[in-house]
Fold this sequence. Notes:
single chain; mainly alpha; 2 domains; 0% strand
Amino acid sequence: xxLFFPIERALWIAxxxxxxxxxxxxxxxxLLRRYPFxxxxxxxxxxxxxxxxxxxxxxxxxxxxxxxxxxxxxLFRFGVAAELYKRICDHFPGxxxxxxxxxxxxxxxxxxxxxxxxxxNLSGTWAxxxxxxxxxxxLQYELFAAAFLLTWIFLRFVLSIRQPxxxxxxxxxxxxxxxxxxxxxxxxxxxxAGAGTAVYxxxxxxxxxxxxxxxxxxxxxxxxxxxxxxxxxxxxxxxxAVERYNRExxxxxTSLPAxxxxxxxxxxxxxxxxxxxx
Length: 278
């Protein structure tokens, strides 16, 4: 385990450098107005990491600073999730109030997934405000990752939407899901492994994954990625096939009332036929 301590330290330094480069890259691309909460979250996390590094881990100053930073980062993480969800819904101008209901249902499902995955003992942790903060810190990463994943499943497979998304939104959506999902998995692994030196490999793996996400954000985000791709044009044969299918479907729907009436009449005649046979 002693090997993981210098590895963790090197990954942490690279993590901070990459985090600063992500902020610089987004500012260079002019994406501040598109992702203000995300850039604010990265900036606060970067500054808070540098500030906390100046205090002794076992000192009271560190504990007080950590508590304040935790509250601020929780608020920014919720802002990042709401910001991304809004950008996803912007692709559907007519979605209206449905976005609120969909967000509530998906958040509830994500919360249930997070709770049943971690299965925390919440009986003695609801003291305000420290206990609630502990619960939020433990569950928020998996909550956000599950919410982003459920949003994709709901739009892609339940509603069967083929709406093209902006490449930057898709990239940010995917990387944010991996980023928060890795943090949630690391918290779960730390709970299963217990305290002590076993935390070092867990932290090293988490830093490596999140460092990869930062590199992907730097490489993948483009200024042109804010444009919606054009719908692919259908060929003449595809248009004819769609029109033929629509005519068949319309004919089928039109004939349904007559078929239903005929079957109802047949059902009424069955008792009379049986009575005559008797």
